[in-house]
Design a protein that fits this description.
Layout (H helix, E strand, L loop, with lengths): L1 E6 L2 E4 L4 E9 L6 E7 L6 E6 L6 E3 L7 E6 L4 E6 L8 E8 L13 E2 L3 E6 L1
Parallel strand pairs: 2-11
Antiparallel strand pairs: 1-3, 3-8, 4-5, 4-9, 5-6, 7-8, 9-10, 9-11
Length: about 120
Amino acid sequence: QVQLVESGGGLVQAGDSLRLSCAASGRSFSSYAMGWFRQAPGKEREFVAVISRSVGDTYYADSVKGRFTISRDNAKNTVHLQMNSLKPEDTAVYYCAAAQYPGTVLRLRLYDYWGQGTQVTVSS
């Protein structure tokens, strides 16, 4: 069992930066691929970024590539999402999730554990 708690969301202006954090409790954090997803009002939850469980391979949605960076600290059971050059279309609730699969896991349904989400609002 893994519990995930996100933090770091807020209201910012276009062009600003935010750093989201996800703290994990439970066992074997390093055995989980960690992903970030987001859900805007009226839209489906979508993949944002993932970091693999072992060598730390990363993969990003095209919409955030070059602006967002995902990282993890297995010693502290945390994963971060550094978001730069934010745009109004990045506005959403951001969720951290854990998947006990190798590699970079993109499919939402493969994630076993989810956090409660943190709101990110980007004003124009």
